[in-house]
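Q: what does this look like with flavin mononucleotide bound?
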Amino acid sequence: MSDDQPPAPALLLAKLGPGVSLEEAAGGVLKARFDRESLVLGKFSANAARRAGQLATGVSLSRLHETDTPEEKELRGLIQRLALYGLVEYRLARGPEAPDIVVIEPQMRDYQPSLQKLDPARSYVLSRFAFLRRRGEDLVLESPLAGAVIRLCDPRVATALARLATPQTLADLRGAPEFFGEEFLALLVHSAMAFAPDPAKGLRRSEGDGDLALWEFHDLLFHMRSTNGRHANPTGGLYAHANLAPQPPAVRPAWPGQAIALEAIADAKGSAVAALLRQRRSERVFDDAHPITLAEVARFLDGAARIVARQKLSEAYGEEMEIAARPYPSGGASYELELYLAVDTCEGLPRGFYHYDADRHALVSIEVTERQLDAMIDDGQFAMGAPRRPQIMITMAARFGRVSWKYSGFAYSLVLKHVGVVMQTLYLMATEMELGACAIGVGDIDLFARMTALPFHVEGAVGQMAIGRAAAQGPP
Ligand SMILES: Cc1cc2nc3c(=O)[nH]c(=O)nc-3n(C[C@H](O)[C@H](O)[C@H](O)COP(=O)(O)O)c2cc1C
């Protein structure tokens, strides 16, 4: 901004999301209306309800946090509740009536923007995970590390971002024609879109921890966007593109070349493996009267997941890797997948959350809240469209560094291939033991991170599976 007068500082303002309105019902009850839905937000004082009306344009967050009157407390509670349902967004602007510099769209339930205190002695640079793209008719700044998407409302913001490709001090930025005030940079730093590098370490190593340095941009983006928990986009069987193209046929149209018929040559009759493969089915309803037993869990894990050999291998470039082999194949013998069991009902094993220590062949209890355990098991029931909860939900978590320490370019894709390998291994072991099992396509990676207190980029949930005694089978 090159006006003679220094511009007023930009403010963070909370406002209702697009299509959301507030409505006052009898007795001071406020309701939010959106998409023909109505959500009761609670009872509010007349003053707080009046101030809530300002959410249509924007209520300053910093002013809201400066004072602690009962009315301010009520308003903060209201914004928090709206945020929980994804009904608020935040503006960065020089006042409620001023044009938006950017709009911040929360992607995670507990996200709230803030302006990070900046150090004039340090330089700041854009995160290597941040990227700009067109979304509909908006230009948005995103990052798998951020709890929000930032919508650009002024093309000069893109220039400001371009300048941050190299480290800049506040003094450098103040001299630039597109300078938006330090609040924009403070917002970028708070939302992990920018950071202060340590010149001694270099850009890559000074962003985040040692585990983050191992991640490539596309891998972390894929991990965050291809499952639930760290973004607010619609997911699942929504048939969103059904009107754009016909459904591809279930069986591939045959190639025109000569076909060599195999039927008369050989078949798999008599093969125990082929029989097991054909017997395998996904079971989504479990027998609550006869839950799976601890002895069955022990046999199941011993057969499908236990470490069976440990050795050191010499690798290229003079590197050496320690291998801990399990009963299934793994690219580069990485064996990065760990199993965690959320147990609802299992005879002989208390309800709880456990890590399967594949080396000691032991279940190690991890303390989690009842709500977290319920949420994980309920998510499984929902994903299977089942009438009752699964007895055990298995989460496969990847120690990503085991793969990305060695492999470049396709590390995350290898992890997902391994998930498929383990899923089928667990399915087959369950089938052989006459247990029920069902793979589950997506899980909440943020829930798993909160249950284990492990950052989502260090050891994160990548696959899930429900197991138990299938309802149709009855007692063993
Ligand atoms: C990677 C993967 C993800 C799956 N996700 C789900 C899921 O979220 N919910 C569900 O009910 N079934 C899920 N399934 C099970 C499939 O629906 C099932 O394998 C398919 O319908 C074929 O049926 P079958 O397993 O009984 O042979 C998944 C299977 C795989 C391999």
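Residues 281-282, 284, 383-384, 423, 438-441 surround flavin mononucleotide (CB under 6 Å). Residues 11-207 form one domain.
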